[in-house]
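B., you asked whether I could sanity-check this one before it goes into the benchmark set. Here's the sequence:
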Amino acid sequence: MKIINKIKILIMIMLSIVVMGNINIYTVFAEEKIASGIYEVSNEVYHDTEIGMSMARSYLKDTMTMKITKNEVLYTIGFTGTDYMENYRVKVNDVEVPVERVDGDGIVTLKVSATSLSDELKACIYVGPMGRDVEFGIIPKLETMSLIESIEEESTEETTENSAIEEIQDNEIMPISENNNTEENSSISKVILFGGVAILVIGIVCTIMLKRKK
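And here's what the prediction gave me:
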């Protein structure tokens, strides 16, 4: 009986691990689902020296905006101390990209496009008194995101259906999911269910084998 009890305890532990692991997977999915809209967000700077960090912080406004849509993240970044700086550039993942510049009230504002919130941003500015470029990282603090305006985007369901029709032969249309979140939740539930069933089956088999040995 002691052996059977140990097996039962082991099964319960394994089942708990399966359930908790899948809950963590669900949390990751939820974090990645940020609604389309315009957000204000605080930022941090990065430079490999303390002096560089201090200078970068003095150049960059401590908040910026992000316009998030399905296919793009549009950053609006403001810089101060513009009397001594020129030739503003931005790199996304170490590649220099086009920017839209707006000047006003001693502030230079740059609009730059990225494809993901995980893309790395770097500012590159020529500083006159130093006679050289200064480059530093710009890090959005996503935990500080504050929604300014929601953006309602058109559903991609119709586009998806049209693509499916073109690909499927003999006019047979495959079922198309109307809700991505439902698919994710269903997949997670199936993993939990199958994992639990597998563990229970293993436990039952072990119990039967032990009884036969007795």
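One thing to flag: Strands lie at 37-46, 63-68, 73-79, 85-92, 95-97, 100-104, 107-114, 121-127, 132-140, 146-150. Otherwise nothing jumped out at me.
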